[in-house]
Amino acid sequence: MTTKTNSLIRPTHYVEHKLLTSILDGTYPPGAALPNERTLAVQIGVTRPTLRETLQRLSTEGWITIRHGKQTVINDYWQNGGLRLLSTMAEYGEYLPDGFITHLLEVRCTMLPIIARLSVEKSSEAILNYLSRANDLDNKAKAFAAYDWKLQLLMAEHSRNPVYILILNDFTSIFKAMAFHYFSLPKARNISRTYYTDLSNAIEKGGKGVEQIVRKTMEKSIEIWNEIKTAKKKKHET
User: Fold this and answer.
1) What are the structural domain ranges in the chain?
2) Which ranges constitute the DSSP H helices of 90-161?
3) Measured CA angle at 70 (ends 66, 76), to 5 deg
4) Which residues contact 195 (CB under 8 A, 6 or more apart)?
5) For residue 2, what pLDDT is reported?
6) pTM of the predicted model, to two decimals?
7) Residue 165: CB partners within 8 Å, gap ≥ 6?
8) Is 234 exposed, middle or buried (0-12, 13-18, 19+ CB in 10 A)?
């Protein structure tokens, strides 16, 4: 192995990391051709069988197209990719384009209110029972991040639509990383405390307004996230 990183992780994972970061940072943009296997294996510092195994997996996910007898080409994954790419992208958040997290939050803003309504219609007691624990939450980002994400998964589970669970599972790692930064702000934690209380009250009154409460809070979360992003950008520029 040619690098310290390469010696600490499985060779196929190392190859995946090298290739995906090069794709996501634009070294190999959509439409670009990778070097041939022999050259690429030498550049990365792995055997050709190891490289070939990783290329096959990336091809299955939709990142690349392997053309026998020709160079492998990077796909236009933003236009033609699917959910399988999301879980992999989540592991490379630092290489994703500016605004990607906001787009994910916008998807959640559309999806979660419906999930919440369905879960309350079908299993209001389970959701209320979980919300009752919010008062005991430690006022720290880590505690809020874990609690809030589990609430979303619980809602998906009790919506009784397994597709929602599969979609959220693909978001898990990236939302967990994002949530820690989000809940580091006292403002975000305060908004969520109000959200949990308002949600509990709405459920106790028969569930009317649940969808609106969730949507309003998700919209606020997008605003706060964009504030965080703007502040980081200004700090980086100074």
Assistant:
1) 4-83, 100-237
2) 100-131, 141-158
3) 45
4) 213, 214, 217
5) 39
6) 0.77
7) 153, 156, 157
8) exposed
Whether domain 4-83 has CATH 1.10.10.10: the reply is yes
CATH number of 100-237: 1.20.120.530
* Measured distance CA(238)–CA(107) in Å, rounded: 32
Tokens 């397994």 appear where?
162
CA distances from 179 to 205, 216, 225, 233 (A): 29, 18, 9, 18
Continuous segment of H or E residues that includes residue 68: none
Chain segment 165-218, per-residue pLDDT in tens? 988 887 787 787 788 889 999 999 999 999 999 999 999 999 889 999 999 999
Contact 64, 34 (CB under 8 A): yes
The predicted model gives 63-78 an average pLDDT of 92
Size (the chain), residues: 238
Closest CA to 165 of 173, 174, 153: 153
